[in-house]
Amino acid sequence: MTTQQALTTWYDAPRVAQKSSVVLGKWIQQRPGGQERAGLTPIKLLTPQRPAQRRNYAAAQVSRLTQGWSTISASANSDIHRSLDAVRARSRKLANDDEYVKKWLAMVTTNVVGPNGFRFQARVYDKPGMPDTMANDAIEAAWAKFGKKGVADVTGRQTLTGLCQLGIKAAARDGEVLAQIVRGKSAANPFGIAIQLLDIDRLDTALNKPAEGVRNAIRMGVEINAYGRPVAYHLKTAHPGDLYQTTSGIQGNTHVRVVAEDIIHEFMADRPEQIRGMPWAHAAMLRLNNLGGYEEAAVIAARVGASKMGFFTTPDGQAEVVSTGTDDGTADGGLMMEADAGTFQSLPEGVQFQPFNPDYPTAMYADFVKANLRGIASGLGVAYHALANDLEGVSFSSIRSGTLEERDAWMLIQEWFAGSFLERIFSEWIAAALAMGQIALPNGSTLPITKLDKFSAHTWQGRRWEWVDPLKDIEADIAAINAGLKSPQSVAAKLGLDYEDLLIEIKAAETMRERLGVVLAITPNPQQLAAAAGAAASATNTTT
Q1: Would you call 93 helix, strand, or coil by DSSP?
Q2: What's CA 505's distance to the chain center, in Å?
Q3: Using CA atoms, how far apart are residues 544 and 542, in angstroms rounded to an integer?
Q4: SS3 of 198, please?
Q5: Do residues 493 and 479 touch, judged by C-beta distance below 8 A?
Q6: How far from the centroid of its chain's Cα atoms is residue 466's Cα?
Q7: Contact predicate 140/121, CB 8 Å
Q8: DSSP sequence for 248-312
Q9: CA–CA dist 447, 529 (Å, integer)
């Protein structure tokens, strides 16, 4: 190769490497001498070529299979701001019309709050290991009085347990629970404090203002300081979708600023710096809507197949629909057929009958619905057999595994709800109750507010469930207690019981039996029976 050819090849190598560009190829040919350079055969250069850059993770690659997969990451609040109102409206629609969502909301209410609510237990101690029993009983009695209907709820319609049930349902359906603390005479109870649950729509998602000078930023109706801590909430004075607002012509855009100390706003956050919450069912909502449409179409197809027998056809191509006999038979003078059993009917000349035999829904209908419900159950965080009421093909091991995993998830939600919603209510109530002198000892003296920190000690016990296999689980717990691996208190807590209260109840039952002269026939356990049988056999052999 001559020096000129080598230089020419070096000059044209980048262009040959980019020969896939049509515009660049035409530009080369139009240049002086471009025809010759365009026809040159490139040689392999000895200089190293830079390898093509590739993404390190397969999930980050962009190809025709991932073109619709977003690679843009926005903040949690930006994503929520764009989607919250639409997702919440659709979540409420599903809650009204979809039977699976309605069942799921019932499961959330039943398993998180339960029929009796959270068990409140005062934990006031005079010294370590020495509980102040009288103070504990007085605080628990006052809390029970506060939880009665018409006391805790400022509207007078709900008990405290009812407020919790409404609150957890709102958190699951809407993604957030919103309540206002009412103080003073407006509370209309002896404690001087009450709770008013509010619809989350009162918190305006469209209200956003940046921080300017000493003024705080407002993000989706929540006023926050520089650290993202809520300092106030801007609530609409009326629900924007209220019928009164529509008929009276009032738009309901007037806002009132309420300080954060008077608002309970709780949600389960998924990302740091998140200010508002999303409905818990958002990951399963699209599939729920599609499954509902599929089932509706299947039902309509089945109804059509059940009500239509076939068609009459004529040589000129006209056809008349044949009914099952449910029509009045007078429509347009069309041909009709009696659907009576054992009846034969002759047709006019040239008229033929073509049966209509739809095969839908097919045998795959049940499998398709079941497969979708499995994905929906995963999106809702519940066991499939509980959501779908389907115990077909379920073994004891599988149902036990699924049930235990689901119960762990319920207890996680219980801890969140008790530690946020109930804890906030109690912290406000105990201060108000002590200040109003509403916690009294048996001798009539009231607990002083100066010892607020001492009297605030307490615990929450959420509802628990019966054992899946009672005999085996009880035997396992007894063995763990005997081996020193568990305490009776932890076993009682697993059942939703307080061990101290349990011992008091047992003692009271024994005292009652002794007073009434009742003797219970206690059946010995299998180990006792085996020991007794062994002792009897040993005594017999010795005698012999």
Answers
A1: helix
A2: 37
A3: 5
A4: strand
A5: no
A6: 23
A7: yes
A8: HT-----EEEEEGGGEEEE---SSTT--S---TTTTTHHHHHHHHHHHHHHHHHHHHHHHEEEEE
A9: 54
For the stretch 27-77, pLDDT in tens is 556 665 555 444 544 544 455 555 555 657 888 888 888 888 888 888 999
Determine the Cα angle at 431 with ends 428 and 437, to 5°: 130
pLDDT (tens digit per residue) in 127-143 = 888 889 999 999 999 99
Please check whether residue 361 is in contact with residue 301, taking contact to mean a CB–CB distance below 8 angstroms.
yes
Q: What is the mean pLDDT of residues 518-526?
A: 67
**The token pair that represents 124 in the structure block:** 């006031």
| Residue 3, CA distances (Å) to 7, 9, 344 in order | 6, 10, 102
Question: 109 by DSSP, 3-state: which?
Answer: helix
Distance in angstroms (rounded) separating the CA atoms of residues 14 and 7:
13
Sign of CA dihedral 186, 190, 193, 198: negative
Which is nearest to 191 in space by CA: 460, 428, 453?
428
pLDDT tens digits for range 216-274: 999 999 999 999 999 999 999 888 877 765 555 555 558 899 999 999 999 999 999 99
CA angle, residues 300, 306, 308, in degrees to nearest 5: 100
Helix (H) or strand (E) holding 161: helix 160-174
Per-residue model confidence as pLDDT tens digits over 72-128: 888 999 999 999 999 999 999 999 999 999 999 999 999 999 999 999 999 999 988
Residue 323: count other Cβ atoms within 10 Å of its Cβ: 17
Sign of the dihedral defined by the CA atoms of residues 398, 400, 406, 408, in that order: negative
